[in-house]
Design brief:
By secondary structure, the protein is α/β, with parallel strands linked by helices. 24% of the residues lie in helices and 28% in strands. It has a 16-stranded parallel beta sheet. The longest helix has 17 residues. The chain starts with 7 loop residues before the first helix and ends with a strand.
Length: 461
């Protein structure tokens, strides 16, 4: 296979590994590479007055075909004036597909759209973060009829006419609304009802601290493929919620309000689930649901769940209080996992890593914030099924070895900010055909351990 025949997602992965300056160099190789780099590039239009000359020069000398732009702090007249020359230069050279506006006042937003509508009317994706206390700009946003994706942050206006907005933005497929701090139950209910009328949505994210019911979403948004409910409290008024097209579900919610034993979700196509341990005991899926990937976060759980048996990729984020036994018990609840990420949320790195036999069935393993020992790696050397190993922000116990453990059977071995006693100058674990693990500058780690430790990391760190 030649490089030209590589699939697009592989090209994206390759360019992601390149530093920004190298991406700029590769952009001049050919038109395809230029467009691929430009598609992932984001140009900031905001600039202080004293640096505007350099900013304009960067735009004029750029060989990239930018399509994504960002403006930060557009609250005052002076901030608006400072950005105008850069905007005019970009209008002459680039078309726009994606626009990000951060900390914007309603007045400046309306002026920006009026004066540059001929340029921004082609925008397909908009992220808008309003300044604190601003009225929601329904009339202004309704003019951007070509939008496919809309992300609204810091929404504080509880009287916004959402129904009128959705009647104009008929092409929206991806919607995010962050109304975390200023909404109330009644306003959130009105918002959810209006969103439910937008039946063509395929991705929806709602973040709030208030209470709502999911019945409207489940009944009307039949094309929804990705749903994220963050922090809000959910009322259960239906025995079962039906999501026929749902593939991705994030239940990072505060709590349920209901008098039934379970929240039944009928989502036969669901493959990814992110849920807290305090919520998972109250959620039930039908037998047709086969969840392949799960992120579970919170305190340890002690009972199995019907959906656990099909999970192949698992992320466990465990908070205090926790101990080695609880970590092991939680891992055992997922017998068919081959990709495992275990992260401990703890002020002190004090929990010893479980015995390597706990990971006998795992091919890809990522450990974060454990206490390591040389015996663990000696055991890992005997587990030939393991292919990828990453250890991050861990401490080695004081017990070290005079020789290096060879993990030559691994195809990938990554060490990131792992501490050993000061007396140790050579990392005690090696892997063939992998970059060496070296002592790195402690200042780069922000002194995340203490002065009794050396900090080691992979060379590409």
């Amino acid at each position: 296979m030649t490089t030209v025949q590589l699939p697009p997602e592989l090209w994206d992965r390759i360019f992601d590994y390149l530093p920004f300056q190298q991406q700029l160099q590769k952009a001049v190789v050919c038109r395809d590479w230029n467009e691929r780099v430009a598609r992932r590039a984001n140009f900031s239009l905001s600039c202080p007055a004293h640096n505007s000359h350099n900013h304009i020069g960067a735009i004029r000398n750029s060989m990239r075909n930018y399509k994504s732009f960002k403006l930060e702090r557009l609250q005052t007249e002076q901030e608006y004036v400072n950005s105008q020359q850069a905007i005019l230069e970009c209008k002459q050279r680039f078309s726009i597909w994606k626009l990000s506006l951060s900390t914007v006042s309603n007045e400046m937003l309306e002026r920006f759209v009026d004066e540059h509508y001929d340029w921004i009317c082609t925008t397909r994706s908009l992220l808008l973060q309003l300044a604190e206390g601003e009225k929601f700009p329904v009339d202004v946003l309704a003019r951007l009829v070509n939008l496919r994706e809309l992300r609204l942050l810091n929404v504080t206006d509880t009287n916004a006419d959402w129904t009128r907005l959705w009647s104009q933005l008929r092409l929206i497929r991806v919607l995010t609304i962050d109304a975390a701090w200023h909404y109330n139950d009644e306003a959130l209910g009105d918002l959810m009802e209006s969103v439910s009328s937008h039946t063509s949505l395929i991705e929806l994210t709602i973040r709030s601290n208030d209470t709502t019911c999911l019945a409207m979403i489940a009944n009307k948004l039949i094309h929804l493929e990705k749903l994220a409910l963050i922090r809000l409290t959910v009322r259960l008024e239906n025995v079962e919620l039906n999501f026929p097209s749902l593939k991705h579900l994030n239940l990072d919610i505060g709590w349920f309000v209901f008098n039934r034993p379970y929240l039944n979700i009928n989502a036969p196509k669901l493959k990814y689930l992110r849920v807290s341990t305090k919520t998972i005991p109250f959620v039930r899926f039908t037998d047709r649901t086969k969840i392949l990937q799960m992120d579970l976060f919170g305190y340890s759980i002690s009972s199995p769940h019907p959906c656990f048996s099909t999970v192949e990729k698992l992320g466990l984020t465990i908070q205090e209080p926790a101990n080695q036994e609880s970590v092991v018990e939680e891992i055992k609840l997922f017998p068919n996992v081959d990709t495992l990420v275990v992260k401990l949320i703890s002020k002190d790195c004090a929990i010893a890593v479980p015995c390597a036999s706990t990971f006998m069935h795992v091919k890809y393993l990522h450990l974060n914030n454990f206490v390591l020992c040389i015996d663990f790696f000696e055991q890992i050397a005997q587990i030939k099924l393991l292919q990828h190993l990453t250890i991050e922000e861990c401490n080695f116990s004081l017990k070290t070895s005079s020789y290096q453990v060879d993990l030559s059977h691994l195809s990938y071995f990554r060490v990131k900010r792992v501490s050993l006693p000061m007396s140790v100058e050579v990392f005690p674990v090696v892997a063939s055909d992998q970059p060496p693990v070296v002592l790195i500058d402690k200042l780069r780690t922000h002194l995340w351990r203490n002065d009794h430790f050396n900090v080691f990391s992979s060379k590409w760190e």
